[in-house]
Design a protein that fits this description.
Largest sheet: 3 strands, antiparallel
Number of strands: 7
Order of helices and strands: EEEEEEEHHH
Radius of gyration: 36 Å
Shape: elongated
Helix content: 10-25%
Oligomer: single chain
Number of helices: 3
Strand order of the largest sheet: 1-6-7
Length: about 160
């Protein structure tokens, strides 16, 4: 049985990611006040409202949650209820992933080519055609008629199949 990365239960972290700022997306900066001939900078407070990415709810229980599936880590803002649902789904999915085989995407296959001649190169065919007055281009595809005429002149060039 192949070894696969297990599904890990989701966990929380406190690092901020994409937060909705109060004030219609305007970030409140620094204000100034003047006193006794000196300028003082005063920092303004910011309030961050975290929104659940699944149902759009807001609340104190919405937090940044990380989870891992098949060795890839994802992050999402979830409430406690949706966090429990996520863990239940990951637990339900785990036996299926553990018993499944990974399907790799198919690569581009090569077009199977049937040999037109045996024991000779296209250069040999072109050289013969020019000597015998058969019309053939210097480059590109050689027509089936030219190959047929070459095989008639060289019976040993006939392919096996």
């Amino acid at each position: 049985m192949p070894i696969r990365a297990p599904i890990r239960r989701a966990f929380s972290r406190a690092a901020p990611r994409r937060d909705v700022m109060v004030g219609r997306g305007i970030r409140y900066g620094q204000g100034r006040r003047v006193g006794e001939g000196k300028e003082h900078k005063v920092q303004m407070a910011e309030k961050v409202i975290r929104v659940d990415d699944i149902d759009g709810s807001e609340g104190d229980d919405v937090a940044k949650r990380d989870f891992e599936v098949l060795g890839r880590t994802f992050t999402i803002d979830l409430s406690e209820d949706n966090f429990k649902r996520l863990n239940e789904m990951l637990d339900a999915l785990a036996p299926f992933i553990e018993n499944a085989a990974e399907v790799k995407p198919a690569g581009k296959g090569r077009k199977s080519r049937v040999a037109k001649i045996k024991g000779y190169t296209n250069g040999d065919v072109r050289e013969w055609a020019l000597r015998d007055g058969v019309e053939v281009s210097e480059r590109g595809k050689i027509s089936d008629e030219v190959y047929a005429a070459f095989i008639d002149a060289h019976p040993d060039a006939k392919p096996d199949a």
